[in-house]
Each structure stands twice: as structure tokens, then as C-alpha cells.
Amino acid sequence: MKLKGSDIMMECLLEQGVDTVFGYPGGTVINLYDSLYKYSDRINHILTAHEQGASHAADGYARSTGKVGVCIATSGPGATNLTTGIATAFMDSSPVVFFSCNVGEAYIGKDSFQECDTVGVTMPITKCNYLVTDINDLASIIRAAFAMARSGRPGPVVIDILTDITKAEAEYEYIPLEEHYKYGKLATLMKRPTHNLKPHEPEGDIDKLVEMINESKKPMIICGGGVVRARAHEELKTFAHLVDSPVAITVMGGGGFNGRDPLTTGMIGMHGSQASNMGIDSCDLLIAIGCRFAERVTLDVSQFARNAKIVQIDIDRSEIDKNVKTDHHIIGDCKRVLEIINRKLEQQDHSKWKEYVFSFPTETRYEEDGETLTPKQISDVASEILPQDTIVATDVGQHQMWAIQHFHYSYPGQLLTSGGFGAMGFGLGAAIGAQIGNPDKVVLHITGDGSFRMNCNELCTEEYYKLPIITLLYNNSALGMVRQWQTLMYDKRYSQTTLDRGPDFVKLAEAYGVSGIRVSTKEELRLALTAALKDVRENNKGCVIDCAIHANELVRPMVPGGRSITSFIVD
Amino acid sequence: MDNSEKRIHTLAVLVDNEAGVLSQVSRMFTRKGYNIESLAVGVTHDSTISRITIEVLTDLERAQLLCNQLRKLLPVHSVKLLNRDNSIKRELLLIKVATPDSAARNEVVQIANIFRANTIDVSTQSITLAVVGDNDKNSAIEEMLDHCNILELVRTGIVALERGMNTIDEDTKEKGEFDYGKNVL
Predict the structure, then answer these.
(1) pTM of the model
(2) DSSP A289-350
(3) Would an 8 Å CB–CB cutoff place B75 in contact with chain A?
(4) Shortest Cα distance from B95 to chain A (angstroms)?
């Protein structure tokens, strides 16, 4: 049947099973929004306050549900406002398809109003991107884009459509999702003359790893973000218990291995626990699963796991030997790889080694004076009151590290955090996406006063769509993480990190129509959180709890960048 | 050889013959701040595939890292870091020299003969030569003509193939591993 370009796009979204999109209208996407109006019974559009909020929301939706997120923005500033969100999704391998429209064919390349080379701008921060200049390619490109976004190592894909194409007409034929690979661009990709179509069989590589495990006396496992993306938490649990090995978890790995499992040593790296970092330093076999050895994990690469043979399991071959030289690698989806290994492994016993690793603390203890609220107390109260499957979305900074160190995540998609890109302002958008994708779960947004100021405008989205998100604001009136570096490495010269200024976050929350309350003791927090949870359940109403903490609280332990992983400057 | 020693590395890259692919490939070099010493692009015997030959000055480890980052790109089919001893490299050099009189013209023609360069254009005031060779040969003719008045000079950039039966898209375990990550199903 003959359809307008914008209707073809809607049909293609339906083919993919998309029922929710995030975005913001504008001049060039007006036809898309006209079609969204027509398809509003089947596609739910969430209007945010800013395109950046929409981009993080689509990302948070994707991470928490495992589905592909969709986000729409107009040309020029609409598209550039997406870039922080695109880069965040790219660094953390989150599957999101971003749609933007560009100016018409007659105006492109002429510095027209709201024109921007979106494909050029987003090239370094996407898995791939497309400029649609021919209506007959539209459906084929959208089908390919979704396949790219979710296959292999997932990632963001940008489709920039000339605005003329959205109103031009073409023949559209419905193709079921499982047959997409037979047609158009995907068919070309499948039939590449140089492409090795034989499925890659890692059996031999797996046998070698099994041998290495049998020889190892002191094995250590790192759970990275790949475990979360592959949703291989069950397989990893079986694997870790068969190997009887301690498991360190990266920032992106949160939820890939149960934080309450007796085998976990907690976080690894710059703010990793002593148990994790000492374990890495002393192990004789390090098995890194879905982990790209970022410098916040390895610190001094030459000293990293210096006594160990290193094995990397990853879906992306270009990650092998990129940051850390490995002794062996297995390429594959870690769910599938672990399934095969688990069938071949015999139960190991490493009690003595575990005893050594767990002689170091897996979590930092903080002093309490009984009056001032501490970050650890906030996590304790939240864990005590909120359900165990609460989804946590964080911003970036000290509160992020505390949230990852002291909450225990048990399933993929439970922790949403900007680990690779470290984008402040990610949290609220991600929480919105997560709440829309998981209406039955409690969503907790953990933020700091610096991060929250960046994208708190999305409180209006939270209020409008009745998304009962609880925001825990770790308010130390400072840009805490940078201040921490200034404390420890810059002789306390607090250059531009003191945020002794507005707004009054309680009034701000109320102005947006959500509840706001300021607390400064554990007891006040307990009451506030209990009331907030009641409000979530009974009134679908969100709440901002402004928690006063001291600016001198440090994220502990800490290893400064470039030093060996056990050189803690604070423990 | 010391892996950290900087030298010219030649990369051969098979890519989709499509808009934007060259800029994706060249971006990998700018990102790391490498200058591309030579670049040649052209379609292969399969019209959907182009072959890019790139020369870059760096150490072996970084060259291998670059290859891996390129292999990851979706429009890239295969990448090979060509072994200097086992590959043939050629480029085409066009050089236009001012020849105000017959003595000058004769000298240029003589040099052209020595290098088996072709005279492809002559006018009363100038002569244009075409020569095919590797870097050394082309630099040598350039040097010989340096004292004449060179008006214009253009190089196509190095193109290279491996000797013998070796080809760029051989089915190796490593290639299978990279292809696995690009499987779209």
C-alpha cells in the first residue's frame, strides 16, 4: 500500500514491537508528529522538557527493559541536544535508535535555518548512522538500524531523514520481524561476499579456559557490563560457584552478579573495595567477562593483575588486547559462552584463597557521630525501606560511587548509571525511561546537588506522566567528586566546586508539582522515605528527598589514577 | 624488531562502496592524531566493495590497534596490515615541468627514459610525465627533476597487494571473531 514517509516510519516501529517513544517536536519533524497523532492508540509518545532528557530516557528504557529505546528530535539544535545522550548510550553499549529529521533537499548544505550535519556530528558516537535521502530506502534503513542497535555489541544508531522524505509517498509492505534479514539493507549485510557466514565456534577456546581453571589455585572473576547486556546473570552465578572464585563487579557490571552473593567482593577499580583490588593483585587467573578494562578499573596497566594469566570473554574482538594484554580470549555472547563452559566444568574448591580475599573488607565502614547523616546511612535506610527489586538510576559523582558500593543489585537492568561517559544529568532522564518501561517497580533516582541542577527540568515530565520516582538527593552543597580530588591532591584549593547557591530543592520540587522534603538525620530520612513510598503506591506521586550530608565525606577507598590498584590513598 | 619503533605501516581495507565510509575510516586516524601519509581509494572487481590503502607513521602496536578499531566498523569487511617484505607497492606520479627551450625539453625526456616514465602531454612551454613505481623510484625521479622548474606534481597514493596467493579476505580465526561481533541477527 502507498504510505507517507512518516507513516512508513510508524509502521516500521510497530514491526519492531515499539510501543513507547521519547522525544521533542520541532519544525522538520512535524510530519512525524502528525503521524504520531494518528498512531497515538498504538505508539505512546513521552514528551520531555529537553531533548537531552528524552535521549537519557530512551537509554534508561532500553537498559532497564532490554528492548531497543527510541528517541525523536528535530534538526539542528534538537539533534545536537541529543549528542550527550547518544554518547552515553555508545560508551555503555545501550541499544537506542535516534530519529532526527534534517532540512529539505533544496536547503541541505546551504546553512539553512536549524540545519546541522547530524550524520557527521554523530559519526564518532554511534554504532552506525544513516542519512535517508530516498523514500524507497526508508523502511529498509529503519529495519537495518534496529537490527544493528540490538545485535552483537549493542549500541546507538542515528537515522537522519530529510524532511521531504517524511511527506513523500512510497509503497510499503509489512514484513514480519523474523524475515527482515531477507530484504533490503539487511539482506545485503547478510550476503556480504567477504563475510564469514559459518557460525563462529569457540569450543576449542573454551576447552583451553577449562584447563586453565583446573590448573588455577587462585582464580578471580570480573563481572563487566557485557554480562548485564547479555542478561547472563544466572549463567555467571553458576559459573562463579563452579569455579568457587571471588567475583569483583565493575560499575557497568552492577546487576550482572548478585551483590548479596557470598562470592562477591564488591566494586573494583579506583573506588573498588580492598577485597576486589587485593584479589586482582594476588590472583593467578583472572577471568574478565564482558569487561573492557577501562582505566578506572585497571589504573596502572603494567601492574594490573601482575601475578595472573588474564582471560577475556567478550563479544567485541576489538576489545581484546586493547587496554590489557591477555593470555587467552574467547569471543562470543557471554550467555552462550558461559552456558557451554558450565557444562564442561567440574566443581572446584578454593576455600583457602577465598579466605585470603575475604580477609579484606568488601565494603567501606564510615564513622558516624549519630547526628550528621552519612552516605552509608542513606543507603542503609533506602535498602531497608524500599523493595529489593527497586530500580536505581544514578547521576555522576560521589553519590554514584556510594550508590554502587552500598546498594546490592541482583538482576541486569536494576542499576542504570553512566559508567563510560560519566554524563552528569543522566539520572532523572534514565529514571523516567525506567519507570515507563517498568510501571510495577519502584524507581529510585540517586543524585547529587551538582548533577540534579543539570537536568532537574525533567521533574515536569515525572509529574505530568504520573511517574512516581523517588529522588534521593545527596546534598553536600559541593561538586563532591571534583572537590574530593581537590582535597586529596590539590591541597584543598576548592576552585569552583563550592555550590553554596540555590535553588531550594524542596520548593523546586513543589513548583514542579511533586513532593519535596529536606532531611538531615537518619530518623528523618526513614520517615520521609516511608511516606514517599506510600505516596508512590497510593497516589502515583514522585518525591524529592533532599538529604543534607557533609561536604567533607569522601568516597572511600580511593586509588589515584595511574597508580597500582592496591595503592589506596584513603581506605 | 622493537614494537615501539615508529615507521610507515601500510593498511589495506575493504569497505562498502557507499557514502560516508571513507570519512568513518579516516576518522579513526584523526581521533588518535595520526597524519595519513598516503591514501588511495578505488572500487574493486566487486562494484559494491572499495579498497582503501592507507600509509601511516606509527609503531606496530598502535598500527595493530588501529586495524582492530577499523575491523569493528560495520562498513569495513576486512583489514590487513601489509608486511613490507611480502607486498608489492606502487603509485602513479604525474609531474608537469616547465620547458622553456629544447635543451630543457631534451633533458626532461632523457630523465623520463631512464625512469621509464611516459610523456603524456607536451606543449611548447611544458612537458608532463607519468611514472609508476614505489616510493623510492618516484622520489628519485622527483629529485632528478628538482632543478628543473616543476610546475605541478601529483601522486595517487600508494596501492599495494600481497605477493603470491595471499589475499586480504582470507578466512582466518581472527576474521571469524570480528565477523561474529558484526552479525546482525
Answers:
(1) 0.95
(2) ES----HHHHSSGGGTTTTSEEEEEES-GGGTTTSS--SEEEES-HHHHHHHHHHHPPPP--
(3) yes
(4) 35
